[in-house]
Amino acid sequence: MLDLRTYKFIRVKAESDKMISSMLVNNGLFVTVSGSCRGRDGVVEYLPIKQKS
Question: Is the pTM value of this prediction over 0.90?
């Protein structure tokens, strides 16, 4: 993840057998959707992020 204030990268998670197909920020959550290229299973994961008010 890129911190836009400091321009530093922060590793959230590393995957070797999945491909992330979508990332978005919604209601204070960083949401990713990933799945295997060969399988039918997918995963939706989220991480709370701090937002300035």
Answer: no
